[in-house]
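sanity check this record:
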Amino acid sequence: MKTELAVKANELIAIYRRRAANKEYEKRINRCMIALSEAANSLHTAAKYMHLSGIDADHVANINFVLSTVSNFAKSFAEFEDQLLRVGSECKSLARTLHTYTGVKETRGRGRPSKNLVSETESLIRLYEQETGEKVVFPKAHKGQAAQRSTEIIRRWLSEIDPSVDTKQSITLIRNARIKIAEIDNLLKSLTAQKKG
């Protein structure tokens, strides 16, 4: 079990180390999140103006005829409006999901988007718990090391990804990752409920 855990951890660490070295990775995610947010705003604005447009019935009838003939997206003016709202909401959900799973925050100013290793820490915690059956507890520090065995292992893995991460930072990362695990679980529940609704 320990050997299998080490192999899987080393695979993740190699991926995360390569990702941390790629300065463009976070910028590409940030640009995608900005585009999704802008698309959502544009779609909701378009739907609002469609709703308020007060287009005459004969024009709506002609539009409905064209849509029913050529569109795979919607078959009527009213359905098109609903679809725009739905897709806009899905764009917002995807932007939120990107932030939740990558840790990249949407930033529109200059410089690199804000990111830390919380997502990576969350994956390492899940791996450790799945492979060992032990819970990674909220950590405490003791003489430069994480006092609990599980958190010390996570701390060592984090230092392999980024040698600049010290014990205090790794403890903060583990605490934040535990909060993130709860956020992800809540997000999945929310998206599942939204899909059913």
